[in-house]
């Protein structure tokens, strides 16, 4: 019987992590930030139909970067998880904390057990009844889960964008200000500003909306709001 | 609860339950109930039944209404049960039959439509929703043989055809389009005769609303399982209207004077 070569677990994990990071670094980033009336998620996405941002439940939204098929599967699993829980118990029993933990568990298991790690990073965010009750979780390819406040960034250019937001973010932004800041931060992610701006995908969780809080902002409306914000400034 | 515990990969919540979580299906346990012939417990007398519901088309959409009584044998089980529910933004589901399975079916159907929309990123066509409901009614057939029938009316606004639509069902899951109006439940026959007599094509909203209430009052007048508007307790039928602007509830403030007028007319 042929014996496999011994490879230290350290080496295996390092290789897997490097592989996953490389995959994620290819994708463009996504920004989520709290504004006065809720939460805003923004992604650069040339496609109008293959979404990176989507609704999970009444107050919960999802965003993923990396390999589309992988985060799409995670998105669907999250919707199934939330709808099942809401159906078996009640709508208020569907919490972002438990969903984010379930994601973390699954992604962690896949990272250690499967030969190929997931090349994705995801955000699971919830708009609270008050701004203090907002929740934002960042789950990484290996299942690492982090709790964020004010803003969260995922994707290849996350570091530069985070630095930009640390310098420019302030509490109680209006929607127009939040849109403008998000776009500026995404542009700050580039080493050299691109010649042509790509289309923006925007999803909102609006606190005042009745029932399901998620709103997918049409691209025309995004452009209009941004133009108005530019004009005002 | 782990995130990826099942193997179903489609967009239907109903199929997801059937495939991976059959214990959560509303109808599953009913199939295990033994035949009740000759037994002490007569199921249809031991559980509450929701009775009269109706729907009629008018020029801008559909009016759907239901009385508020649940009947258990010869007793009033509830005076305030609701039989008309918003399905999603453009549809309404009304239920008649055994109240427990009926309400579970409504809940499952609501989640089904929302689930599909979130997974696929698109809303089901009205026809697609009506078909999915037919499959659910069909699943209930074994229970229907034991007397626990569920007979819904599904109505909605078809954004593509730009008109209101009504679907009626039989216990086997048979689905039929209704062009004008329909009523079912214990007082359904009586309500249908009123609707048949006074229904006109292209009625206004107010005329359709008044006719819906009149049909319910007539049903309650004859059928002991149906209650009319209860002015003493302030209980009025539930009426919902679907148009291209979505689903709207008719307020008590609007129902009260209409009901009073109809009840006064009964004095003769």
Could you explain how this protein is built, in words?
The complex is a heterodimer of chains A (233) and B (268). Chain A has helices at 9-25, 68-88, 96-113, 158-168, 175-188, 219-232, and strands at 30-35, 38-44, 53-57, 60-66, 120-126, 135-139, 145-148, 151-154, 200-206, 214-217. Chain A has a 5-stranded antiparallel beta sheet. A 5-stranded antiparallel beta sheet of chain A has the order 3-4-5-6-7. Chain A is of the alpha+beta class and 233 residues long. Chain A is globular, with a radius of gyration of 18 Å. By secondary structure, chain B is α+β, with helices and mostly antiparallel strands. Chain B contains 8 helices and 13 strands. In chain B, the strands form 2 sheets. In chain B, strands 1, 4, 5, 6, 7, 8, 9 and 10 form an 8-stranded antiparallel beta sheet that branches. A 5-stranded antiparallel beta sheet of chain B has the order 11-2-3-12-13.
CATH fold-level topology of chain B = Glutamine Phosphoribosylpyrophosphate, subunit 1, domain 1
Multimerization state: heterodimer
As a whole number of angstroms, the C-alpha radius of gyration of chain A is: 18 Å
User: What series of H and E elements makes up the topology of chain B?
Assistant: HHEEEEEEEHHHEEEEHHEEH
Q: Specify the CATH homologous superfamily of chain B.
A: Aminohydrolase, N-terminal nucleophile (Ntn) domain
Derived structural class of chain B: alpha+beta
Q: Give the low-confidence spans of chain B.
A: none
Span from first to last CA of chain A? 72 Å
Q: Any guess at the CATH architecture of chain A?
A: 4-Layer Sandwich
Helix content of chain A: 40-55%
- Determine the mean pLDDT of chain B: 91
Write a concise synopsis of the structure shown.
The complex is a heterodimer of chains A (233) and B (268). Chain A has helices at 9-25, 68-88, 96-113, 158-168, 175-188, 219-232; strands at residues 30-35, 38-44, 53-57, 60-66, 120-126, 135-139, 145-148, 151-154, 200-206, 214-217.
């Amino acid at each position: 019987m042929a014996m496999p070569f011994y490879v230290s677990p350290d080496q295996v994990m390092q290789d897997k992590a490097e592989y996953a990071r490389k995959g994620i670094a290819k994708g463009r980033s996504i920004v989520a930030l709290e504004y006065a009336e809720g939460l805003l998620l923004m992604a650069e996405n040339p496609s109008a139909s293959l979404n990176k941002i989507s609704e999970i439940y009444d107050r919960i939204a999802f965003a993923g970067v990396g390999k589309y098929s992988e985060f799409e599967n995670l998105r669907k699993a999250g919707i199934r998880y939330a709808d099942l829980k809401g159906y078996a118990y009640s709508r208020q029993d569907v919490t972002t904390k438990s969903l984010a933990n379930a994601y973390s568990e699954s992604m962690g298991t896949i990272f250690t057990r499967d030969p190929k790690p997931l090349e994705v990073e995801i955000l699971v965010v919830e708009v609270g009844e008050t701004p203090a009750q907002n929740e934002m979780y960042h789950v990484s390819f290996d299942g690492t889960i982090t709790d964020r406040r004010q803003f969260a960034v995922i994707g290849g250019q996350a570091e530069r964008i985070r630095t930009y937001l640390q310098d420019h973010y302030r509490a109680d932004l209006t929607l127009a200000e939040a849109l403008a800041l998000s776009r500026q931060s995404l542009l700050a992610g580039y080493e050299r500003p691109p010649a042509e701006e790509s289309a923006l995908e925007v999803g909102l969780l609006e606190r005042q909306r009745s029932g399901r809080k998620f709103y997918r902002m049409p691209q025309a409306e995004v452009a209009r709001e941004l133009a108005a914000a530019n004009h005002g400034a | 609860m782990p995130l990826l515990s099942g193997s179903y990969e489609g967009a239907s919540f109903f199929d997801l339950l059937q495939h991976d979580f059959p214990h959560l299906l509303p109808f599953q346990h009913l199939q295990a109930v033994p035949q009740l012939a000759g037994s002490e417990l007569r199921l249809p007398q031991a559980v509450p039944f929701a009775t009269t519901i109706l729907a009629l088309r008018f020029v801008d959409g559909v009016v759907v209404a239901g009385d508020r009584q649940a009947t258990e044998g010869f007793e009033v089980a509830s005076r305030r049960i609701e039989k008309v529910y918003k399905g999603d933004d453009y549809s309404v589901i009304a239920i008649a039959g055994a109240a427990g399975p009926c309400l579970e079916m409504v809940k499952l159907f609501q989640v089904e439509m929302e689930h599909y929309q979130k997974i696929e990123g698109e809303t089901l066509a009205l026809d697609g929703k009506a078909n999915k409901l037919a499959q659910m009614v069909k699943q209930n057939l074994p229970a229907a043989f034991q007397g626990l029938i569920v007979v819904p009316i599904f109505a909605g606004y078809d954004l593509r055809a730009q008109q209101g639509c009504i679907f009626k069902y039989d216990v086997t899951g048979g689905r039929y389009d209704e062009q004008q109006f329909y009523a079912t439940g214990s007082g359904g026959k009586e309500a249908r005769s009123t609707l048949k007599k006074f229904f006109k094509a292209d009625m206004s909203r107010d005329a359709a609303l008044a006719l819906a209430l009149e049909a319910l009052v007539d049903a309650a007048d004859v059928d002991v399982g149906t209650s009319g508007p209860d002015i003493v307790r302030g209980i009025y039928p539930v009426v919902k209207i679907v148009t291209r602007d979505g689903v709207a509830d008719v307020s008590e403030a609007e129902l009260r004077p209409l009901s009073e007028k109809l009840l006064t007319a009964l004095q003769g």
